Amino acid sequence: QSLPQQKLLTWLSVLECVEVFAEMGTARVWGEMGRWTIIVLIQLAKAVLRLLLLLWYKAGIQTSPPIVPLNREQQQPLHSEDMEDNSSGKDQTYVGRRSSRVVRSLQSTPSLQSRHWGSPQQREESQSRRAEEMNQPPTPLGLQETIAESIYITRPLLHLLSLGVWGQRSWKPWLLSAVLDISSLSLLSDLKDLNRRERAELRRRTILLLYYLLRSPFYDRYSEGRILLLLRLLADYVPGVGFVTR
Asked: Which spans does this entry mark as compositional bias, Basic and acidic residues (predicted)?
Protein backbone atom coordinates (compact mmCIF):
# COMPACT_ATOMS: atom_id res chain seq x y z
CA GLN A 1 0.00 0.00 0.00
CA SER A 2 1.15 3.50 -0.79
CA LEU A 3 1.73 6.05 1.95
CA PRO A 4 -1.36 8.18 1.09
CA GLN A 5 -3.51 5.05 1.17
CA GLN A 6 -2.11 4.09 4.58
CA LYS A 7 -2.90 7.58 5.87
CA LEU A 8 -6.49 7.32 4.62
CA LEU A 9 -6.87 3.95 6.34
CA THR A 10 -5.44 5.39 9.55
CA TRP A 11 -7.82 8.35 9.58
CA LEU A 12 -10.73 6.07 8.78
CA SER A 13 -9.78 3.79 11.67
CA VAL A 14 -9.52 6.78 14.02
CA LEU A 15 -13.00 7.97 13.00
CA GLU A 16 -14.49 4.55 13.64
CA CYS A 17 -12.83 4.40 17.06
CA VAL A 18 -14.00 7.81 18.29
CA GLU A 19 -17.41 8.22 16.59
CA VAL A 20 -19.47 6.85 19.49
CA PHE A 21 -17.55 8.91 22.03
CA ALA A 22 -17.93 12.03 19.86
CA GLU A 23 -21.67 11.44 19.51
CA MET A 24 -22.20 10.96 23.26
CA GLY A 25 -19.98 13.88 24.21
CA THR A 26 -21.63 16.24 21.74
CA ALA A 27 -25.09 15.21 22.92
CA ARG A 28 -24.05 15.92 26.50
CA VAL A 29 -22.67 19.40 25.67
CA TRP A 30 -24.82 20.69 22.81
CA GLY A 31 -27.94 18.55 23.05
CA GLU A 32 -29.83 16.61 20.40
CA MET A 33 -29.13 19.05 17.56
CA GLY A 34 -25.38 18.87 18.15
CA ARG A 35 -25.58 15.09 18.33
CA TRP A 36 -27.18 14.76 14.91
CA THR A 37 -24.77 17.31 13.46
CA ILE A 38 -21.71 15.34 14.56
CA ILE A 39 -23.29 12.10 13.29
CA VAL A 40 -23.78 13.59 9.83
CA LEU A 41 -20.25 15.03 9.74
CA ILE A 42 -18.60 11.77 10.81
CA GLN A 43 -20.61 9.64 8.39
CA LEU A 44 -19.89 12.10 5.57
CA ALA A 45 -16.15 11.99 6.31
CA LYS A 46 -16.17 8.19 6.44
CA ALA A 47 -18.05 7.95 3.14
CA VAL A 48 -15.61 10.33 1.42
CA LEU A 49 -12.56 8.42 2.68
CA ARG A 50 -14.03 5.04 1.70
CA LEU A 51 -15.01 6.28 -1.77
CA LEU A 52 -11.47 7.58 -2.28
CA LEU A 53 -10.07 4.19 -1.32
CA LEU A 54 -12.55 2.41 -3.59
CA LEU A 55 -12.42 4.57 -6.70
CA TRP A 56 -8.93 6.11 -6.61
CA TYR A 57 -6.79 3.47 -4.88
CA LYS A 58 -8.82 0.41 -6.02
CA ALA A 59 -8.92 -0.97 -2.47
CA GLY A 60 -11.68 -3.45 -3.32
CA ILE A 61 -14.04 -4.72 -0.63
CA GLN A 62 -13.22 -2.73 2.50
CA THR A 63 -13.23 -4.31 5.91
CA SER A 64 -14.34 -2.96 9.24
CA PRO A 65 -12.11 -2.01 11.00
CA PRO A 66 -10.14 -0.71 7.99
CA ILE A 67 -6.81 -1.74 9.54
CA VAL A 68 -6.86 -5.35 10.73
CA PRO A 69 -5.76 -5.49 14.40
CA LEU A 70 -2.37 -7.05 14.98
CA ASN A 71 -2.43 -10.50 16.57
CA ARG A 72 0.74 -10.35 18.62
CA GLU A 73 0.72 -14.05 19.46
CA GLN A 74 0.65 -14.97 15.77
CA GLN A 75 3.23 -12.33 14.86
CA GLN A 76 5.59 -13.30 17.70
CA PRO A 77 9.04 -14.02 16.26
CA LEU A 78 11.03 -17.10 17.08
CA HIS A 79 12.82 -16.93 20.40
CA SER A 80 16.51 -16.07 20.40
CA GLU A 81 17.30 -19.47 21.90
CA ASP A 82 15.54 -21.13 18.98
CA MET A 83 17.61 -19.05 16.57
CA GLU A 84 20.79 -20.08 18.39
CA ASP A 85 19.73 -23.73 18.22
CA ASN A 86 19.13 -23.40 14.50
CA SER A 87 22.52 -21.80 13.96
CA SER A 88 24.30 -24.46 16.03
CA GLY A 89 22.63 -27.25 14.09
CA LYS A 90 20.68 -28.84 16.94
CA ASP A 91 17.65 -30.90 16.01
CA GLN A 92 14.45 -29.20 17.12
CA THR A 93 12.23 -32.25 16.77
CA TYR A 94 12.28 -35.95 17.45
CA VAL A 95 10.29 -38.45 15.37
CA GLY A 96 9.09 -41.57 17.17
CA ARG A 97 10.27 -44.80 15.57
CA ARG A 98 7.00 -46.72 15.90
CA SER A 99 4.38 -43.95 16.14
CA SER A 100 6.05 -41.51 13.72
CA ARG A 101 4.86 -38.76 16.06
CA VAL A 102 6.81 -35.50 15.84
CA VAL A 103 7.65 -33.95 19.23
CA ARG A 104 9.91 -31.09 20.24
CA SER A 105 13.28 -32.05 21.62
CA LEU A 106 14.13 -30.93 25.14
CA GLN A 107 17.21 -29.02 23.94
CA SER A 108 15.11 -26.67 21.79
CA THR A 109 12.35 -25.90 24.30
CA PRO A 110 11.82 -22.11 24.38
CA SER A 111 10.99 -19.99 27.38
CA LEU A 112 7.49 -20.12 28.88
CA GLN A 113 6.46 -16.75 27.36
CA SER A 114 7.15 -17.85 23.78
CA ARG A 115 6.14 -21.49 24.16
CA HIS A 116 3.40 -22.85 21.93
CA TRP A 117 1.76 -26.19 21.21
CA GLY A 118 2.82 -27.89 18.01
CA SER A 119 5.99 -28.59 16.14
CA PRO A 120 8.20 -25.77 14.82
CA GLN A 121 7.39 -26.83 11.25
CA GLN A 122 3.68 -26.42 11.89
CA ARG A 123 4.25 -23.01 13.42
CA GLU A 124 6.40 -21.82 10.53
CA GLU A 125 3.87 -23.11 8.00
CA SER A 126 0.95 -21.41 9.76
CA GLN A 127 2.88 -18.13 10.06
CA SER A 128 3.84 -18.16 6.40
CA ARG A 129 0.28 -19.04 5.37
CA ARG A 130 -1.17 -16.18 7.47
CA ALA A 131 1.43 -13.78 6.05
CA GLU A 132 0.47 -14.77 2.51
CA GLU A 133 -3.23 -14.30 3.29
CA MET A 134 -2.67 -10.87 4.81
CA ASN A 135 -0.47 -9.74 1.92
CA GLN A 136 -2.86 -10.86 -0.81
CA PRO A 137 -3.89 -7.95 -3.06
CA PRO A 138 -7.57 -6.98 -3.08
CA THR A 139 -9.78 -8.70 -5.60
CA PRO A 140 -10.35 -6.43 -8.64
CA LEU A 141 -13.94 -5.19 -8.79
CA GLY A 142 -15.92 -4.81 -11.99
CA LEU A 143 -18.54 -2.17 -12.62
CA GLN A 144 -21.30 -4.14 -10.88
CA GLU A 145 -19.19 -4.85 -7.80
CA THR A 146 -17.98 -1.24 -7.64
CA ILE A 147 -21.59 -0.03 -7.67
CA ALA A 148 -22.45 -2.55 -4.94
CA GLU A 149 -19.59 -1.38 -2.73
CA SER A 150 -20.52 2.26 -3.39
CA ILE A 151 -24.09 1.49 -2.28
CA TYR A 152 -22.78 -0.02 0.93
CA ILE A 153 -20.53 2.99 1.57
CA THR A 154 -23.23 5.61 0.95
CA ARG A 155 -26.02 3.73 2.75
CA PRO A 156 -25.49 5.55 6.12
CA LEU A 157 -25.78 8.93 4.39
CA LEU A 158 -28.96 7.91 2.54
CA HIS A 159 -30.38 6.56 5.79
CA LEU A 160 -29.67 9.83 7.60
CA LEU A 161 -31.23 11.77 4.71
CA SER A 162 -34.36 9.63 4.84
CA LEU A 163 -34.57 10.12 8.61
CA GLY A 164 -34.51 13.87 8.07
CA VAL A 165 -37.22 13.67 5.42
CA TRP A 166 -39.62 11.11 6.91
CA GLY A 167 -38.76 11.17 10.62
CA GLN A 168 -37.54 8.50 13.03
CA ARG A 169 -40.93 6.82 13.46
CA SER A 170 -41.43 6.16 9.75
CA TRP A 171 -40.87 2.75 8.19
CA LYS A 172 -39.35 4.25 5.04
CA PRO A 173 -35.79 4.81 6.41
CA TRP A 174 -35.76 1.28 7.83
CA LEU A 175 -36.93 -0.22 4.53
CA LEU A 176 -34.55 1.90 2.45
CA SER A 177 -31.55 0.90 4.53
CA ALA A 178 -32.50 -2.80 4.42
CA VAL A 179 -33.03 -2.73 0.64
CA LEU A 180 -29.64 -1.07 0.10
CA ASP A 181 -27.85 -3.58 2.33
CA ILE A 182 -29.48 -6.60 0.65
CA SER A 183 -28.89 -5.16 -2.82
CA SER A 184 -25.21 -4.60 -2.11
CA LEU A 185 -24.74 -8.14 -0.80
CA SER A 186 -26.62 -9.70 -3.70
CA LEU A 187 -24.51 -7.82 -6.25
CA LEU A 188 -21.29 -8.83 -4.48
CA SER A 189 -22.33 -12.49 -4.23
CA ASP A 190 -21.29 -13.08 -7.85
CA LEU A 191 -17.63 -12.39 -7.03
CA LYS A 192 -15.37 -15.43 -7.18
CA ASP A 193 -11.86 -16.10 -5.88
CA LEU A 194 -12.14 -13.76 -2.91
CA ASN A 195 -9.34 -13.84 -0.39
CA ARG A 196 -9.92 -14.86 3.20
CA ARG A 197 -10.24 -11.30 4.52
CA GLU A 198 -12.88 -10.38 1.93
CA ARG A 199 -14.90 -13.54 2.53
CA ALA A 200 -14.91 -12.80 6.26
CA GLU A 201 -16.11 -9.26 5.59
CA LEU A 202 -19.04 -10.47 3.45
CA ARG A 203 -19.99 -12.97 6.17
CA ARG A 204 -19.90 -10.17 8.72
CA ARG A 205 -22.17 -7.99 6.60
CA THR A 206 -24.61 -10.87 6.17
CA ILE A 207 -24.77 -11.50 9.92
CA LEU A 208 -25.29 -7.78 10.57
CA LEU A 209 -28.62 -8.03 8.71
CA LEU A 210 -29.99 -9.54 11.93
CA TYR A 211 -29.58 -6.12 13.54
CA TYR A 212 -32.60 -4.94 11.57
CA LEU A 213 -34.70 -6.93 14.06
CA LEU A 214 -33.39 -4.60 16.79
CA ARG A 215 -33.81 -1.30 14.94
CA SER A 216 -36.76 1.01 15.28
CA PRO A 217 -39.54 0.97 14.25
CA PHE A 218 -39.41 -2.84 13.80
CA TYR A 219 -38.10 -3.29 17.34
CA ASP A 220 -40.73 -1.01 18.87
CA ARG A 221 -43.64 -2.80 17.21
CA TYR A 222 -42.57 -6.44 16.95
CA SER A 223 -39.27 -7.45 18.55
CA GLU A 224 -39.50 -5.68 21.92
CA GLY A 225 -42.54 -7.55 23.24
CA ARG A 226 -41.22 -10.96 22.21
CA ILE A 227 -37.74 -10.33 23.60
CA LEU A 228 -39.16 -9.13 26.92
CA LEU A 229 -41.46 -12.18 27.05
CA LEU A 230 -38.49 -14.49 26.47
CA LEU A 231 -36.45 -12.76 29.17
CA ARG A 232 -39.39 -12.98 31.57
CA LEU A 233 -39.76 -16.72 30.94
CA LEU A 234 -36.04 -17.24 31.49
CA ALA A 235 -36.19 -15.26 34.73
CA ASP A 236 -39.16 -17.24 36.06
CA TYR A 237 -38.27 -20.78 35.05
CA VAL A 238 -34.47 -21.04 34.61
CA PRO A 239 -32.61 -21.10 37.95
CA GLY A 240 -29.72 -18.69 38.30
CA VAL A 241 -30.63 -16.59 35.25
CA GLY A 242 -33.26 -14.35 36.81
CA PHE A 243 -30.82 -11.83 38.28
CA VAL A 244 -29.31 -11.09 34.86
CA THR A 245 -32.53 -11.15 32.80
CA ARG A 246 -34.49 -8.93 35.22
From this structure: 122-133
